[in-house]
Amino acid sequence: MATHLQPHTPLFIVPTQWTNDQRGDYFERFVAELLTLLCWQCKTRIRCTGMEIDVFAKSRVTKEIALVQCKFQRDPLQSGVIDLLLGQALRKEEVTNTLLFSIGPLGKAARGVVEELETKPLDKNFGFFGPDRILELLEGSSSPPPKITYKPAPGRSVASSHLLLHPDYPKLWLHEEQHNGLPLRVVVDGGSSIDCELLAAAIHAAGLFEDVPFEGAFTPNTSLTSSTSAADHDTVAPVPVADSIDDYRPCRPSDFIGRKDLLGELRTFLESIQKETNASRVLALTGHSGFGKSSLVLKLTEQVHSRELRNKIFVFAVDTRSARHKSFVSAAVYECLQAAVRSGFLPEPPSTLSVPSEGPILSSNSARWALSELSRSRRLLVIFFDQFEEVLSKDELRPAFDAMHSLALEVHAEKGPLVLGFS
C-alpha cells in the first residue's frame, strides 16, 4: 500500500556557507514577507533599549501590534525562549500579540507552556508557528505552494513530503519514497525545468537526504534492483551473538555470568521510566573494549522479555557497526517499530509504518501512533545503539552521529515512553 503517512511540512535550506546571522536574517525576511501577505505591515531587526526585535508587525485590518521572534533552529525549542519573548513584550505597552516562529519543533516542556498560554486569557495573545502552522499560513496566503501532482507507484511508501524553501529555488515539493524503511529516492514535484542533479547537490551539501537520488515527478520509478536502490543503503544489523562459549563475539545470554547488581540497576531504571517516576530518557553503558557491554545488553534484552516484564518493556538492540549513512538512525527506529509489532508488544498499525530520514523522527505519524499506543498501555520501548563508538571514530559517519544526537534531543524533550541507550 502506498500512502502519504507523514504530514506535509516545509523544509528550510540555505547555502552551507551562510553564517548564523545570514540564516537568521533570511528566516526573519521570510516571516516578514509571509505576514505581509496576510495584511501585516512589518519591520525587521528593530533595536530597542536592552533588546533586539526580530520582526515588529502591525495589522492593516485590526491595527493590532505583534512582537515576533524567529528561530532558525532544527533542534527542539526550550521553554526559556518563550519566557524571553513574553518578557520583552511586557516592556512594550502597545504590543497586543507575541508570535514565535520556528523551523523546528517545541520540546516537551515548551509544548506544555504553549498549551497553557493558548488556553488561558492573557493581556498579550501568544501564538506558536512551527513547520506545520507555517505551511498552513502559506496555503492561506496570496502566494500558496504549488499543487502536488505526484502519485506514488503501487508498493511504494512515502515517508515524508516537504515543501522546499530555499533562497535559490522556487517553492517545490520533495517526496521521500522508501522501501522496507530505507530511502529509495526523492521525487521533485512542482518544477519541470529544475535540474534535479544540481538541486540534489545543494541539498546533499546541507547534509540532507544523504546519498539518495533525486528524480522528477514524471521520471520512471527507480528500480529496486538498480544501483540507487534501497539495498545499497544501511542494513540495520542486530547485535551479534556467539555460537559457543569460546567464541569472541558477545556471549549468549544463557552463558552470561555475574553483573547481577548492574543488571538489577538497569531493570530498576527502566521500570522507573515505565512507571513514569523518572524523567531520564537517555542512558549510556561505558567501559573499555572487551569489558562485556554488548553481552550485558543482550542479557538485559533477554531479562526484560521474560514473563515478568514482557508486557511492560521492549528492548531492541542494533549493531552500530552496520551504519553507512545518516539514514541508519531512521531505519533503526523503523526496524524497532516493526519488531515491536511482530512480537505483539505494539498492535497492528492503522497504516503502513514509515519513518522519514529527514526532519524530526518523533513528529512522524508512525512515531506519534507508536508513542500514543505505548502511553495508553503504559509500556516502554528501548532502542540500544551498541558499538556506538563506531560513529565517533570515523569521519564519514559524522552525519550518522548527528542524526543520533538529534534523536536523543527529541527523546529527551519528549519524555515519553521511549528510551535511547548507547553502549
Structure report:
- With 423 residues, the protein is an alpha/beta fold.
- It folds into three domains: 20-139, Trna Endonuclease, Chain: A, domain 1 (3-Layer(aba) Sandwich); 145-232, no CATH class; 253-422, 3-Layer(aba) Sandwich (Rossmann fold).
- It has helices spanning 20-37, 79-90, 108-119, 131-139, 196-205, 260-274, 293-304, 327-342, 365-377, 390-393, 398-414; strands at 9-12, 40-48, 51-59, 65-71, 97-102, 125-129, 157-165, 172-179, 182-189, 214-216, 282-284, 313-319, 380-386, 418-422.
- The longest helix has 18 residues, at 20-37.
- The protein is globular and about 75 Å long.
Strand content: 15-25%
Task: Identify the CATH architecture of the largest domain.
Answer: 3-Layer(aba) Sandwich
Please give the order of strands in the largest beta sheet: 1-7-8-9-10
Percent helix, as a range, is 25-40%
Query: Low-confidence spans: pLDDT under 50, at least 5 residues?
Result: 1-5, 222-231
Overall shape: globular
The CATH top-level class label of the largest domain: Alpha Beta
| Largest pleated sheet | 5 strands, mixed
Helix/sheet category = alpha/beta
